[in-house]
Amino acid sequence: MSDEHELTIRVRYSETDAQGFVHHSHYLSYFEMGRTELFRAGGGDYRAMEDRGLFFVVAQFTCRYHKPARYDDLLTLRTRVSKLSQAKLEHEYRLYRGDELLTTAHSVLACVDSEGNIKRIPEVLESLKRPME
Amino acid sequence: MSDEHELTIRVRYSETDAQGFVHHSHYLSYFEMGRTELFRAGGGDYRAMEDRGLFFVVAQFTCRYHKPARYDDLLTLRTRVSKLSQAKLEHEYRLYRGDELLTTAHSVLACVDSEGNIKRIPEVLESLKRPME
Amino acid sequence: MSDEHELTIRVRYSETDAQGFVHHSHYLSYFEMGRTELFRAGGGDYRAMEDRGLFFVVAQFTCRYHKPARYDDLLTLRTRVSKLSQAKLEHEYRLYRGDELLTTAHSVLACVDSEGNIKRIPEVLESLKRPME
Amino acid sequence: MSDEHELTIRVRYSETDAQGFVHHSHYLSYFEMGRTELFRAGGGDYRAMEDRGLFFVVAQFTCRYHKPARYDDLLTLRTRVSKLSQAKLEHEYRLYRGDELLTTAHSVLACVDSEGNIKRIPEVLESLKRPME
Q1: In this complex, which chains have at least 3 CB pairs below 8 Å with chain C?
Q2: Is residue C10 part of a domain?
Q3: Of A82, A124, B6, C131, whose CB count within 10 A is highest?
């Protein structure tokens, strides 16, 4: 799960704003797609994880916007796990248009059960490798 | 619940698109706000209804876009129930900027329980007038 | 441009709502993606069209929601032009999850210049086939 | 413009996700509303500023999510300018539900003209106090 994952994203018209560029809030959805696909590439299934009552929640997000993306741009998102502790899962993101670096970001996730109790992340990730009961 | 409800909405920057106007998808969120507030004005509480395991789902939507809304416009939404049958709850919406009619719409909702079974709407609305058990 | 176009869409987490399904407003963004890709498949480039000061605006939308889509579903959108007149461009949409038909929709677009003046659509589409001056 | 501004926000259904809480991307739109209203309270008009060809762009965002917000929650957003230099305008945000602090955030904005050239922010803010030519 620690390798870098690369995802191609086509900018939707609905993601632009009146300045003609992608609204800064939508990058967080791009990064979420990166997490989903990184997890899938490592053999995980985040939807199945939620069906079992385990949820990753975003605790912190930092995003630096270097250059704007436009409608119909074809972007490349590189997502990787930068840190894994008992309580936190951290990701780094770099979003490119060709060679141009548009956005960099970092997130911290925590894992909770359906009552909101914090779960130990290494155990959660380990158990996800076993088939669902 | 059958009277018309009036709601004031300030257009957010994030709702605009690269044409400089509100993206046509966001009007559906405005109309949803109209339904919530119309329901509240009639003594209902849609959140409490969902907490009891009853959900309104949108079965059909028609929207006519006459004139566009811009960032920071102050809009007036008029929402009313146009029809109530055993299976369907229908609403009509008219969105204004001052005297200008910008958008008109019509929706059909159905009521389901948490397993997706259709519930009779008049009974649901009647039971909502009684205090939660 | 009149043939049917097929687009695969992976449902994003950010498109779901508290009912656990895709919020009904997001389907309009899916359909817009279908229009963009149908246009591209026919040799058009909607972004270049806007750069030349011509814009398609949504005049009417009807959507029927048959079954809900969930996070991480892999959907197939089929988009086609159902009617082309001097003033209007109409599309039909059918959204599937495998063989299940989830949503059907119909839209009417008009073409305007940057001052909002209505343009004749057949001429616009014809001129788009010539190289940009 | 440096005082704190308080804005009341009702959570929309369309802002929730399948976990039942507000999706973490939507807080950025809340904070943008806070900036608009703080600016208005200080006598500014961000829409008029854009009409004159000056734009604030988000260069950096950090958000800490302490507790989640739910559909229909009535939230209080407190927005203030934390720093103003020649090149950057920084804001701090605290979002509450009653006395509970849900989210804190910090943003850095830059000012550009319509060609993307950086403009000196104090001059921009000063000129905005003069009537539009």
Answers
A1: A, B, D
A2: yes
A3: A124
The answer to whether residue C106 neighbours chain B at the CB level (below 8 Å) is no
ipTM over 0.85? The verdict is yes
Q: Does B23 touch chain A (CB under 8 A)?
A: yes
**CA-angle at C62, arms to B36 and B92, nearest 5°:** 35
Per-residue pLDDT of chain B (133 residues; tens, 9 = 90+): 458 999 999 999 999 999 999 999 999 999 999 999 999 998 899 999 999 899 999 999 999 999 999 999 999 999 999 999 998 999 999 999 999 999 999 999 999 998 989 999 888 887 766 554 4
Return the amino acid letter for D59. Answer: A
Please provide the size of chain D in residues. Answer: 133
Number of domains in chain A: 1
**Domain-embedded: residue C133:** no
Residue of chain C whose Cα is closest to the Cα of B31: C25
Full residue range of the structural domain in which residue D120 is found = 5-127
Distances (CA, A) of C65 to B34, B78, C109: 20, 24, 21
Which residue of chain C comes nearest to A25, CA vs CA? Answer: C14
pTM (2 decimals)?
Answer: 0.95
Catalytic residues of B: 17
Of C104, C108, C103, C111, residue with least CA distance to C91: C108
Contact status of B79 with chain A (Cβ, < 8 Å): no
Among C18, C23, C70, beta carbon nearest to D20: C18
